[in-house]
Amino acid sequence: MYKMKYRILFPLVLILPVLVNAQLKIKNAEDFKIGTVLRFQKCDTMGITAGSGGENQTWDFSQLKLKSDTNTEWMVLPSATPYADKFPTATQVEKYSDGSFVYVDKEKDQSNLVGYASAYMAIAYPKPVPFAKRPISYKDKCTTNFTDNFAMSGMNFSGSGTATIEADGYGKLILPNKTYKNVLRVKVTQLQMDTIKQYGSVSRMNTITYAWFDGNNTSALFKISYTKSMGYNAASVEYLLSEKNK
Length: 246
Fold this sequence. Notes:
Shape: globular
Number of helices: 0
Radius of gyration: 17 Å
Structural class: mainly beta
Distance between the termini: 30 Å
Order of helices and strands: EEEEEEEEEEEEEEEE
Strand order of the largest sheet: 3-5-6-7-8-9-11-12-13-14-15-16
Largest sheet: 12 strands, antiparallel, barrel
Helix content: under 10%
Number of domains: 1
Number of strands: 16
C-alpha cells in the first residue's frame, strides 16, 4: 500500500522476549530512536508464502533468492525532511533510500502512521493508522479505524479503513544469513476504501504484512508484504542485514 509501514504499511514491529505461560512477549516493537539506521536485503517474491501461524513453528526461508539491491532506512526528526509541514503531528520519520518518507507519531505503547510522502504523492491519515503495539504477545489482536486523503494522477481520493495487528505465531526463523530462535510473528492487515471525488467511484485495497521479531532487534528480522486492489497487485520480501544506533 503505497509504502506504508512494512514496508509498506506498513510496514508492521517488536523486542525483549520473555516466556510467560509459554507465551513469547515483545516489549518494544519499532520503538526506534532518532539516528537508528536499518539495512534490508531485497529478495525475489516468486513462490514465497508466509507459512502457517501457531505455536512452535519453524519458518524456513533459507533458500530465498537474493536481489542485487538493498533498502536502507534512517530514523530522523521531521524537521530534517522536506514534507514536515504536511504532517505536523509526526514525531519521527523513516527516511528510505528510494527518496520516500514515512511520517510517524510514536507513543509509549504504539507507533502510528500519520503520512507518507515522495516526489510523486503525499498521503495523509487524519485519523492515524497504528502499525506497532508495545508490548505484544502471542494471540494478542487489536483492530483500529483510520481515515486518509491524497491526490494522484489528477484525481483526489478520501476514505477510511481498518488496521488489524495480530501476533499469530511463534517459533524458529531460518534465513539465508542466520537462524533465530524464539521469534514472534506479527500479521498486520489493512483494509481501505477510498472514494474518487471527481467520479464518486470507490477503490478498495487490501495490504497484508507478516513480520518476525526476536527480542534482540527493534526492527523486524524478516518481512513479507502483499497488496491487492482493483487492477493492481504487488509483493515485497526482505530481511534485516543490520540495525545500528548512533
